[in-house]
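Appendix B, example 12.
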Amino acid sequence: MRKPREIVEGSSYHVTARINRGEYLLQDNFEFDLKKMFIEVVHRTHQIYNFRIYVIEVMDNHIHMMIKPEGDSELGNIMNSILSTFARRYNILFKCHGHVWYDRFKSKVIKNSQQLINTIRYICNNPYRAGMINNPLNYKYSSVYSIYAKIKTELVLLILSIMDLTDKNIRSIYDDYRKEFSFEKASAVNKALGFYPNKPGRPKKIAVCSQL
């Protein structure tokens, strides 16, 4: 049986979802920007449900977000809407069928200020640890890049439109991360924060539409 999801009213959650079989389904595509399409789905869902987003990071085979549901909105409804909508769009776009996401999304309750800081930094460091980019501050499918981007591209504006930076504490965490960033710190892996401690890095699999 599945372990019941921990839900604490008024809390923020670190959520992640992995592509089925760990395939690089979201990797760069010459014809379609699938990472941007995922962010567009989050934007659409943000207009339907009441929640705050403090962090978003779209990788090649999984996603990370920090979400705080508000009002009557529930974490399960928010994430199910995001994941199912993206899956439908993907299957229609590539004329596929079957599961896009592996199992249900995973979540952790943010219980204290230190966990909040560590989780934001953990998520921001993800593309560097996965070997996708030399500096996570330059990874364009992330909230940390969008916050400090000098050129406000369509993608940057899209990410900023779904983020809540009115919380001065959240903004200060980003500012401190940027000031204190070091490659040594970024390389360190805090397994207590991860969802898949025994599966570091990126799986060596290529997405094949017919197998989804």
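The chain has a mean pLDDT of 89. The CA atoms of residues 146 and 156 lie 5 Å apart.
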